[in-house]
Amino acid sequence: MVARPVMRGAMSPQAAPPVRVAVLISGAGSNMAALIDAGQAPDSGYEVVLVLSNVEGAGGLAIAAAKGVATATVAHKPFGKDREAHERAVDAVLRDAGAEVLALAGYMRVLTPWLVGGWRERMLNIHPSLLPLYPGLDTHARAITAGDAEAGCTVHLVTEGVDEGPILGQARVPIVEGDTAEALAERVKTAEHQLYPQVLSDFCRDLLRP
């Protein structure tokens, strides 16, 4: 059962404002940019209200700011090996921003059960493979080496296991003769930019249904 955010006032689901989403990044944030753009459409089920990074000066922060979205950085290095302490600081910023759903978009941190539990069934991630195939890294090279006919990407809910959460949507991308991991990655990335906003919007609309 997916937890529903608190409804504002006595508005009907049709009149309810979009769900407030925070996007977590560690780098350039191409998926983040796609999420922001789609969330600004009048019929979107969500709006991106914050982009947060664990890396000072991450390229995606400037992109988000240029699109009019608030940004924040909670660097992980000062916390050393205490991942939960870092996550508690991140969580405080997210809740201060009024975030209702989290979207991980190239957030290169292994999350602790503390943060996953606090946002259970309200945290999404996108992975560049057709899960359950190829969790982890080097997904495109592994798909090519295995002789697969297709690759793709998966949007899933985040659970304690890495890339193991319930699947919300997938997009398939053919692997062509002579493909390289780099060429395949670019085609999969294009699919990601289409899939993630649509799945997130549908997910958020479901949250607003009575």
Automatic annotation (TrEMBL):
<comment type="pathway">
    <text>Purine metabolism; IMP biosynthesis via de novo pathway; N(2)-formyl-N(1)-(5-phospho-D-ribosyl)glycinamide from N(1)-(5-phospho-D-ribosyl)glycinamide (10-formyl THF route): step 1/1.</text>
</comment>
<feature type="binding site">
    <location>
        <position position="83"/>
    </location>
    <ligand>
        <name>(6R)-10-formyltetrahydrofolate</name>
    </ligand>
</feature>
<feature type="binding site">
    <location>
        <begin position="29"/>
        <end position="31"/>
    </location>
    <ligand>
        <name>N(1)-(5-phospho-beta-D-ribosyl)glycinamide</name>
    </ligand>
</feature>
<comment type="similarity">
    <text>Belongs to the GART family.</text>
</comment>
<feature type="active site" description="Proton donor">
    <location>
        <position position="127"/>
    </location>
</feature>
<dbReference type="InterPro" id="IPR001555">
    <property type="entry name" value="GART_AS"/>
</dbReference>
<dbReference type="Pfam" id="PF00551">
    <property type="entry name" value="Formyl_trans_N"/>
</dbReference>
<protein>
    <recommendedName>
        <fullName>Phosphoribosylglycinamide formyltransferase</fullName>
        <ecNumber>2.1.2.2</ecNumber>
    </recommendedName>
</protein>
<feature type="domain" description="Formyl transferase N-terminal">
    <location>
        <begin position="20"/>
        <end position="200"/>
    </location>
</feature>
<feature type="site" description="Raises pKa of active site His">
    <location>
        <position position="163"/>
    </location>
</feature>
<feature type="binding site">
    <location>
        <position position="125"/>
    </location>
    <ligand>
        <name>(6R)-10-formyltetrahydrofolate</name>
    </ligand>
</feature>
<dbReference type="InterPro" id="IPR004607">
    <property type="entry name" value="GART"/>
</dbReference>
<keyword id="KW-0808">Transferase</keyword>
<comment type="function">
    <text>Catalyzes the transfer of a formyl group from 10-formyltetrahydrofolate to 5-phospho-ribosyl-glycinamide (GAR), producing 5-phospho-ribosyl-N-formylglycinamide (FGAR) and tetrahydrofolate.</text>
</comment>
<dbReference type="InterPro" id="IPR002376">
    <property type="entry name" value="Formyl_transf_N"/>
</dbReference>
<keyword id="KW-0658">Purine biosynthesis</keyword>
<dbReference type="GO" id="GO:0004644">
    <property type="term" value="F:phosphoribosylglycinamide formyltransferase activity"/>
</dbReference>
<dbReference type="InterPro" id="IPR036477">
    <property type="entry name" value="Formyl_transf_N_sf"/>
</dbReference>
